[in-house]
Amino acid sequence: MKVVVIGAGIVGVTTAYEFAERGHQVILIDKREGAGLETSYANGGQLGAGEVAPWAGPEVPWLALKWMGRADGPFRLRLKADPEQWIWLLRFLMRCRASAREERVLPNLGLALLTQSRMDEIAAKLTSEGAPLAFDERRDGIMQIFHYERSLKEAAHGAETMRRAGLEQRVLTAAECVEVEPALASSVQRGEIVGGLYCASDRSGDAHVFTRELAARAERLGVRFVTGAEVERFETQGDRITGVRTNGWLFGGDAVVLAAGIGSAKLARQLGLRIPVYPLKGYSVTVPAGEGVAPKVSLTDEARKIVVSRFGDRMRVAGTAEVSGYDTTLEMPRAKSVLDGLLSLLPQLSAGAGEAQFWTGLRPMSSDGSPLIGQAGRYRNLYLNTGHGSLGWTLGAGSAAALADAVCGETPRLDLTPFNIKRFSFI
Length: 427
Prior knowledge:
This protein is α/β, with parallel strands linked by helices. It has helices at about 10-20, 60-65, 85-95, 100-130, 150-165, 175-180, 185-190, 205-220, 265-270, 330-345, 390-410, and strands spanning about 1-5, 25-30, 45, 75, 140-145, 170-175, 195-200, 205, 225, 230-235, 240-245, 250, 255-260, 275-290, 300, 305-310, 315-325, 355-365, 370-375, 380-385.
């Protein structure tokens, strides 16, 4: 089988790898000059099965109003004369219910657990071949920390649902948070932390490095990379896509996988398909870890709305969500607010603040917080693997494996019905 994959982020590269490993011919197309240079480039680094709940929830409208007008607010809405934005917002707001959030948790969790399993299988295979992947992976777990008792109780309730589905998480007192991660001692002493939720099986790592390294392994399996190439149009005949035209070249395939992140919606419209995926802008900051002062456990600060992960001698902090279209301008007040959040939580990292590296990127967010995976639209050989939002790293490898199972007619490792585009009542 010939497969054309559009998009070379974490989702597209893992998808290309899965098909190539099964012996199929794969062409991977991306507009950038290499793999993992968009959303996958500098994210928060968490592979967190314990943190797969959608962003949409009953608290979101109130928080949006609370932070409106604040340059440093964790959430910001910039309305535009863009029907795509308004339609997405309407769908998102309709999902801001506790029941709607809970509906998506277990499907996302299953996909996250499959991702961890598949990454272990890939790592074992490559290690046995003498080419192990190195991407600053840490298996020290992920801890959510809470400033308020009410938030901790709500999280503990959600953890019980996940426990019944097979994911173990520990509810911690403030003192136990320090036992698990001593770097939190000063925050606990200041009375900022009332407790935490710790998932020992969760992980962290550099998504960009993983994507780049796996892309190199995929090339050795025969994947042809076409970089610096914008998809101009699709050639179709009847109910099939017969080719993808880019930069004057035409690439044919038996299957076409749309894994282009924030570019997916525009490309899908060329094929008469509207998908509820819209960019949410986020920021990250990378600073030196210093000597013996940085945490080893990846952290999520629920009050500050930031995540923190350690990559060797670097610390990465990421946060903010901005509904502002496709603008990638790096605004220093917002970027600085993410750094300030890190230094408020871990003031011992202040010595490295002068070497901070700032980045901004666009997350391809579906309106209900779950990706779109599987066959879609009028063309029988068109498949989606997009809309992962902030969970592309957490769900990517599992999404790729499950999609490849479905396309190749293999025994499915995961039921993709919850991720089919048909779950949306209007498109």
